Amino acid sequence: MPLKRHHKIIIGGFGTIVIVYMFVTAILLNGAIIKQELNYNDVLKKINDVKSSQTETQSKLNELTENLIETQKSLNLLDESLNSKLKQIKASTSADFSGIIEDSLKSVVTIRTDVAQGTGFIISDEGYIVTNAHVLSGGRQLEVLDYEQDEHPTELIGYNITLDIALLKISGNYNSLELGDSNDVQIGEKVIAIGNPLGLQFSVSEGIVSAINREGSNGLKIYIQTDAALNPGNSGGPLINKQGEVIGINNFKIGSSESLGFALESNYIKEVVNQISQEEYGMNLI
User: Fold this and answer.
1) 42 in a domain, yes or no?
2) Catalytic residue among 107, 203, 210, 235, which?
């Protein structure tokens, strides 16, 4: 049965509505998808921003930690420096040098052979020791006693007869004495001599520098004259200034006279030690 005209109009109008509805729905869905994608991108950006912020924060924390560590190291160095200065001040204002002696004694040793006894002192943490060569003369046995009275087998590295210096070595790690610059020594400055006079181990005598550039039996004007008491057994021991530095090695005195002791200047100690170590090891020791 053929559709009447009014039936066609109704069907056509309904189809148009359906098409319009589908078009509008498609537009709305597409808008929703675009909005959702924009929201997703915004959330992703925020997440990345948070991650970046966390990385930056961690970097700053690491930097802050490193700065704190460096500050602590600086404070420790400052504390050590202040303690050193306090010891120097104490030594400068105290006639008995107690601020220096306490540290120096631990680096002084007794040198024994089967024919003589003398003194030596440690010049490097690896156990290298300086003494007078004449302390070892004629001996067939050699031993070193440290401040704790422990005996150590000892190796003779080398010696210089002209300047009366011998370099020894014991095993282990030790606190060493620092060699000062003997060019800076002033007449009248206070000094102490540490040694084993007449077998009295680790004795300390105090005095002043009486003169510099004195001539020794070798004809060289390289000796410090001091009125600090020196006796047999002091040979090879250190002459120490108020800064705790070795400015000479106690070498000899004139006959039975008092207050006329002589010490080889520290710059020549360093020169001879390095000559010996160059010959033995091919390098400077100090």
Assistant:
1) no
2) 235
Cβ within 8 Å of residue 158, ≥6 positions away = 166, 167, 276, 277, 279, 280
List 104, 107, 134, 152, catalytic entry: 134
How many independent structural domains does the chain possess?
A: 3
Report yes or no on 214 lying in a domain: yes
Is-catalytic flag, 6? no
Tell me: pLDDT of 267 over 70.
yes
Q: Is 150 a catalytic residue?
A: no
At CB < 8 A and 24+ separation, what contacts does 88-91 make? 88/242, 88/243, 88/244, 91/242, 91/244
Report CA 188 to chain centroid distance, whole Å. 32
Residue 51's pLDDT is what? Answer: 56
Residue type, 64: L
Residue 162 burial by Cβ neighbours in a 10 Å radius (0-12, 13-18, 19+): exposed
Q: Which of 125, 146, 169 is the last residue of a domain?
A: 169
Note the pLDDT of residue 197. Answer: 84
- pLDDT tens digit sequence for 171-218: 999 999 999 999 999 999 999 999 988 778 888 999 999 999 999 999
164: annotated active-site residue: yes
Q: What pLDDT digit, counting tens, does each position of 175-184 carry?
A: 999 999 999 9
**Given the residues 107, 164, 176, 203, the one annotated as active site:** 164
Which two three-digit tokens encode residue 207?
A: 């005095």
Cα–Cα distance list, 263 to 3, 136, 215 (Å): 139, 18, 11
Binned at pLDDT 50, 70 and 90, residue 89 comes out as very low
pTM over 0.90: no
Q: Is residue 44 part of a domain?
A: no
Percent of the chain surpassing pLDDT 70: 69
Is residue 126 within 8 A of residue 173, CB to CB? The reply is yes
Cβ-proximal residues to 228 (8 Å cutoff; 6+ apart), any chain: 191, 192, 193, 205, 206, 207, 208, 239, 261
